Amino acid sequence: MQVFKGLESISDFFGKKTQYFKLKSGESRLIRFITPIDNIVSIFEHSEQLGGGWKTIPCLGKDCPLCEVGQRPSLKSYMLVIDREDDTVKIFKASKTVAQQLISLVQEYGDITKRDFKVYRQGEKINTSYQFFPKDPSPVDLTKYDIPNIEDVIKVYTKEEIENLMNGAPTVSFNTANVDPEQDSSFPF
């Protein structure tokens, strides 16, 4: 068990929460991919409204209770980016379509961690598309950033925990980093 003592440690803990990179329709922002293409984490996951809110649940494959009731998982790729607007590291969660765009960018420009990209979002929910506009290559000093481990952010549930969620049992503590705001209309953004 990890113990935090004093108000300063509590402040430090909350200050280190990893954020997701988000844009509203019509917005653009400058980002720098910092996850090497070989280290991008991709998983099949379910985004379901369970237990009073949206939960992102990695698919268990053949033993997955959500698949057994006909819920289809989708492929998501997780990578780290520097959001140049506030100069912080955030998680960019990409759909299969966006991941294919990134593959094309790598084929055209090589290592995408060597340059910034202006990213533009158009559309809402499942009708969203992104455009990427490459900038000239430039160095970046990653030593000044707190770089999280993406795999630590992804909450993996057991079969029993998923079944409890499906049955409405509030016995599972949720990692709020798992909530996909793209899928939840109650989020203000």
Question: Any descriptors?
Answer:
eight-stranded mixed β-sheet; alpha+beta; 189 residues; disordered C terminus; single chain
Description of the structure:
The protein has 189 residues and is of the alpha+beta class. The chain has one domain. It is 21% helix and 31% strand. It contains five helices and eight strands, in the order αββββαββαββαα. It has helices at residues 7-15, 65-68, 96-109, 150-153, 159-166; strands spanning 19-20, 28-33, 41-50, 53-58, 74-83, 88-95, 115-122, 129-137. The protein is elongated and about 50 Å long. The two termini are 34 Å apart.
Sum this structure up briefly.
The protein is an alpha+beta fold and 189 residues long. It has 5 helices and 8 strands; from the N terminus they run αββββαββαββαα.
Write the layout of secondary structure elements.
Blueprint: H1 7-15, E1 19-20, E2 28-33, E3 41-50, E4 53-58, H2 65-68, E5 74-83, E6 88-95, H3 96-109, E7 115-122, E8 129-137, H4 150-153, H5 159-166
Parallel strand pairs: 1-6
Antiparallel strand pairs: 2-5, 2-7, 3-4, 3-5, 5-6, 7-8
